[in-house]
Amino acid sequence: MSSIAQEVARRRTFGIISHPDAGKTTLTEKLLYFSGAIQMAGTVKGKKTGKFATSDWMEIEKQRGISVASSVMQFDYREHVINLLDTPGHKDFSEDTYRVLTAVDSALMVIDAAKGVEEQTIKLLNVCRLRATPIVTFMNKYDREVRDSLELLDEVEDVLKIQCAPITWPIGMGKTFRGVYHILNDEILLFSPGEDKNVDDVEVIKGIDNPRLDELFPLEIEQTRMELELVRGASHPFDLQAFLAGTQTPVFFGSAINNFGVREILNALIDWAPAPQHRDATARDVKPDEEKFSGFVFKIQANMDPKHRDRIAFLRVCSGKFERGMKMKHLRLDRDVAANSVVTFMASSREQVEEAYAGDIIGVPNHGNIQIGDSFSEGEKLAFTGIPYFAPELFRTVRIKNPLKVKQLLKGLQQLGEEGAVQVFKPLSGADMILGAVGVLQYEVVKSRLENEYGVDAVFENCVIHSARWVSCEDSRMLADFEKNLILNLARDAADNLTYLAPNRVNLQLAEERWPKVRFHATREHS
Ligand code: GDP
Predict the structure, then answer these.
(1) Any idea where the Tr-type G domain is (predicted)?
(2) According to the annotation, is 140 in a ligand binding site?
């Protein structure tokens, strides 16, 4: 095996998906704690310790206690390099989350076992399905009264349309939570509460029929043995191929806050989850162990460090070896970029990258010349595909109080549009710019950034737009005709794509019926 292939084989790049409050942050913290990347629990979010985490980067975020931006953390575990991509769980930032999921090879789904499958989980899982991303499931909060475990599996299978293969099984719950039975290893891991417990403190008892279990907790173990009969009959045995194909999920049970069940997940990710995969780059498929470097940008984040006013482009390495100081070609601009100050995202700090391989994420500082979806290589013309834009559901027009600032406003909007903070539409007729978003909170972010970074005091006003569709038509004459007729409803987005802005659902339907050869798209890929 080449040294590049070896490096690729020991990498795992995954994201955590969950509905807000299911325990994603807590679990992230424990994963880092577990791997030794952080010394004590409580450094990811500042809630308890007063420290601010790597992912806390904006004032709004601090005020609201939510995580607006996804962050990337790299750590080592069992001689593997793990890249954990955090995804904002807040529903207003789902667009960003979707894009992060294009850069992972597997996902960890966290479910609050008291609540079951929630709205955001469904949406995120649908995004994972687009690329058949393998998913590991963690049923969290067993130290509380939760729902019946079999019922939870049923719900996952029914609602998320994915087979469940329980790997562990909970023994009791809430006050009588005793631990989990590891079905594949035939051993019981005993639960003891405590936030800062050491990993190796977990006591293990071999064999589900071990009489010690009847001495320790006769009622719960009896119940568990009965449940296991049902589980064996009703659920699926673990099948690695089905997991890799995204049709089956191994399920683990535990309690993130008590650091219980976390090691089993990490092991599953290392033992079963795929190493970085090949990627479609339009011209051809790119394999991760190729000699030459390539990658694409899936996210842009501003002001991560208030001392630096630059923006960081998050680039997923897709092949080859990245070395500090190397020249990489920005393919859209056909220009070399010297990669001297590229950063990596170690769990505790921003550090200079010396080298990186497929699956790793590197941060490229820039002043606005990198957009989401941009591809980089050592020169070969590649264009990685699959980074989605979703049609916005909320619309506002923008006005400014001081007309002398129009230029700054336009510049700010263009840059924020390129970053994907908000979608910006310029009507073909009419002067007011239109902003499209998936969630209301995006407007607050944009407003505060326009003020702080561009010195523009902008006012957003409601407008009568119900939905947006990107339009295309193979017949260019017909498209021109369409443009002329519907000019009042048409705009161009930040990447100059023609977009139809419909005032209501009926109008959109009518337009679709009247122009059967014009295609209306609810998503578009970065081009
Ligand atoms: P996120 O919104 O998904 O990042 O969720 P957090 O990690 O912030 O957790 C949401 C709440 O659930 C917090 O109050 C956590 O302390 C709590 N929580 C997380 N894991 C557990 C658990 O295993 N048991 C219990 N009882 N609470 C938990």
Answers:
(1) 9-277
(2) yes
* Distance in Å, CA 206 to ligand 1 centroid: 30
Is 158 marked within a binding site? no
Q: How far apart are alpha carbons 421 and 303 in whole angstroms?
A: 13
Assign 46 a pLDDT band (cuts: 50, 70, 90).
very low
Name the residue among 131, 80, 132, 107 with its Cα closest to residue 271.
80
Assign 3-class secondary structure to 284-335.
Answer: CEECCCCCCCEEEEEEEEECCCCCCCCEEEEEEEEECEEECCCEEEECCCCE
Contact (Cβ atoms closer than 8 angstroms) between residue 14 and residue 269? yes
The CA distances from residue 38 to 12, 75, 492, in Å, are 19, 10, 46
What residues does ligand 1 touch, defined as CB less than 6 Å away?
A: 18, 20-26, 89, 140-141, 143-144, 255-258
Walk me through the domains of the chain, giving residue ranges and CATH numbers: 18-60+107-272 (3.40.50.300), 279-377 (3.40.50.300), 391-525 (3.30.70.3280)
Sheet holding 248-253, edge to edge: 72-77, 80-85, 11-18, 106-112, 135-140, 248-253, 163-166
Q: Which residues contact 334 (CB under 8 A, 6 or more apart)?
A: none
Question: What confidence score (pLDDT) does residue 334 get?
Answer: 94
CA of 119 to the centre of ligand 1 (A): 17
Kindly tell me the sign of the dihedral angle through the C-alpha atoms of 313, 319, 325, 327: negative
User: Given pLDDT bands bounded at 50, 70 and 90, which one contains residue 57?
Assistant: very low
SS3 state of residue 128 = helix
**Among 19-23, 233-237, 244-248, 277-281, the range of highest mean pLDDT:** 244-248
Atom of ligand 1 nearest to the CA of 258: 23
Residue 20 CA: which ligand 1 atom is closest? 2
In this structure, what token pair is assigned to residue 56?
């806390």
What is the distance in A from the centroid of ligand 1 to the CA of 72?
A: 20
Task: Give the Å distances, CA to CA, from 349 to 34, 271, 317, 346.
Answer: 18, 28, 20, 6
- What is the ipTM score, two decimals? 0.99
**In the block, which residue shows the tokens 């076992």?**
113
359 is in an annotated binding site: no
